[in-house]
Amino acid sequence: MKDRGNTPIVSDERIIALIETYGSDISAYPEAEQGAAARRMAEAPGLFAQALEEARRLDDVLNLVPEVDVPASLRNSLIADAPKAARTGRAQTGFSRFLPGWLPAGAVASLVMGLLIGVNVSLPASVANADTNDEADAVMYAALGFGNYELMNEAAE
Amino acid sequence: MAFVSDLDQITRAAAGDPSAVAWLVDRYSPGVLGLTTRMLGDRMEAEDVTQETFLRAWKALPGWEPRAKFSTWLHRVALNLCYDILRKRRESLPGELPEMTDPELTPPERLMQSERVKAIETAIAALPERQAAALTLCALQGHSQVEAAEIMETSEEALESLLARARRSLRATLAERSVA
Q1: Which residues pair with A2 in a beta bridge?
Q2: What ranges do the domains of chain A cover?
Q3: Do residues B53 and B138 share a domain?
Q4: Is the CB of residue B160 less than 8 Å away from at least one CB of chain A?
Q5: In this complex, is the C-beta atom of B111 within 8 Å of any C-beta atom belonging to chain A?
Q6: Which chain A residues are closer than 8 Å to B113 by Cβ?
Q7: What angle, 0 to 180 degrees and rounded to 10, lies between the N-to-C axes of helices B18-40 and B113-125?
């Protein structure tokens, strides 16, 4: 409801309800009703004095309730939880978002398999160029990282 | 001081920036812990719920919708976790009401400030849970009607009704105990 000046009108009953709901502080009322309520309360203070007094007593009591301090241990825990959670859930950007999560492990596995296959496939060529089987074996063992094929043979015999 | 928005900090925190994480914790943990403490009346449980609330927040950060208000979301999660705990309490202790009377507190002239505060906190925690939430959000934490209604996922009219009943009930309880 609005008056001719386009200012909202608040009934006396509504002002009592506002006091009982939000207390004695007009700034706690819904913004749209603050101005009209303040004007009406200034016009007829006697109408609202009792409600305001009761509300003020309760407001004073509520104001005694202290704010809750966050203990340092809790603050530290909250912060410590965050980076891990944030990193595991970090949003992927660009092209990487379309790649599956197992791709890095798959790439490493492929590389290892490729090296092994490469070594095995290249061995017959080495053997073909060797004069004897022993020389071919020596080349193969050297490729695999063993130092001295002859010493290995002697030790085996 | 430069204006820093929640969204800036959320974006940075999601990328693992420790200063943004600390900023969010310092800005919002007092309100969340205050709400959970008033709702549950038990500091240890309140801290657990606060920790769970922030854990959920950290997980939600990477996909954060800029339209959502972080504060509202955080308080709503905390409040819903409190409702769960209060429901479990009711189920495990059917018919048992919260302790409301303390004979030591009856003579008004002997009421010390700390005792008055304790009596008020007990009276708030003993309110029906939605009334306690409305009162805590609006009267103790200064949230607007719109914010409080969003946190509680209710209409502003319903919030107003809860708030009025909470204040009436609190006034009656405290008057009985000569606190107000």
Answers
A1: A8
A2: 12-64, 106-156
A3: no
A4: yes
A5: no
A6: 64
A7: 90
